[in-house]
Amino acid sequence: MDKRTLKGAAALALALALLLNWAALAEGLAPDPTLEPPTPLRSARIRAAGDLMVHKKQLAIAKQADGSYDFHPQYALIADALANADYTIANLETTIGQYENRPYSGFPMFNTPESLLDAVKDAGVDFLTLANNHMLDRYFEGMVKTVDNVEARGFDFGGANRTPEEKQRLNIVEVNGIRLGFLCYTEMTNGMEDWCNSAVKEYGVNYLRKADIPAEVAALRQAGADVVIAIPHWGVEYERHPQSYIVNKGRKMIAAGVDVVLGSHPHMVQPVEFVEVATESGQTRRGLVAWSLGNFIDSMTKRYTDSGILLEFTVQERQDGSFGIENVGVVPIYCWKRDDSIQAISSLKYLDEPPEGMSSGTWQRMQDSYQELERLLGEDVKMLAE
């Protein structure tokens, strides 16, 4: 159910319960005080998007006649899919807020107006990971401004810290009564850390190489996290399969107690699969790994960078009080580029009939991108239209 309609659904459920109660009273019935109603098992449907990028062309398209920027049109055709979950996660791969007197910019030093966050928030995103290789594109000060802007708009976030205290803070979010613990890391920041305030290396960015993942997972569990989600920015760009060292890192995360791994950085979709590993105690753990979610929106031209996935999974409570990861599926994303428009869309939704204004050549490419994702992900991953 779209989270924008949850309040209405809850009100409807309450009204139905009251109606049933009144009906019972009218029949002269009374509930048995010795019987405790069963506690419903908790569940939460989560979605995760890939890289939210803003290249030079996206900036130009978003710029208005009065000098302001409006990014809502770039998310207009995918907003329903982003909002169609209890909680939605994405990777913000740009700094936010103008730095000194420098103009906004795309690759290779990303810096974007604050209004991007308004569009992303209105489209339905709840959590932003800030741990990626472009988070220092406006140095430590620009990173701090980015966190300020993200926080001011009500996002949950992780991966970048303004103070040592923030670095130590446990990142736990409650969704439908389930406590989700987040760990956000990046392998690199393009060497920018050497040009920044030393605070970056001390506490500013969560680097994967410095992470004690077993200890961090244990701390989240002790603080009450029911499920742990790791979001690493890792791997090699423009590769459709993870390198062996990435596979080893992912397996170690699952063995350490992580339940879901959401990878990014390659700018191409990589496989989604359940991974089983042996722990140090000899037990077997199973976790869901998306090695790379690919691009969500961008203006890249290299093949396979025009597609991504919006991953969906359900966190489901079991009778014994533990939690499992179920119902894995993806909304296949195609980035539709025109001279005056760039939009993320669901390729499955428009597989049989193109959206208004799409050329036959572009529609063919969108259909090809869908088939490429279908072959890559395999039949075990369900394709969702929206």
Structure, briefly:
The protein is α/β, with parallel strands linked by helices and 386 residues long.
Describe what this molecule looks like in 3D:
The protein is an alpha/beta fold and 386 residues long. The protein has one domain: Purple Acid Phosphatase, chain A, domain 2, CATH 3.60.21. The protein is 29% helix and 26% strand. The protein contains 11 helices and 17 strands. The strands form 3 sheets. Strands 1, 2, 5, 6, 13, 14, 15, 16 and 17 form a 9-stranded mixed β-sheet that branches. A 6-stranded mixed β-sheet has the order 7-8-9-10-12-11, with helices on one face. It is globular, with a radius of gyration of 22 Å. Mean pLDDT is 93; it is low at 22-26.
By secondary-structure content and strand pairing, the structural class works out as alpha/beta
Order of helices and strands: HEHHHEEEHEHEHEEHHEHEEEEEEEHE
Task: Please tell me the total number of domains.
Answer: 1
Distance between the termini: 11 Å
Quick one: how many beta strands?
17
| CATH overall fold name | Purple Acid Phosphatase, chain A, domain 2
Global Rg: 22 Å
Mean pLDDT: 93
Q: Please, how many helices?
A: 11
Poorly predicted regions are 22-26
Describe the global form.
Answer: globular
Describe the sheet with the most strands. 9 strands, mixed
CATH hierarchy, class = Alpha Beta
Give the second-level CATH assignment, the architecture: 4-Layer Sandwich
Query: What percentage of amino acids are in beta strands?
Result: 25-35%
Residues in helices, as a percent range = 25-40%
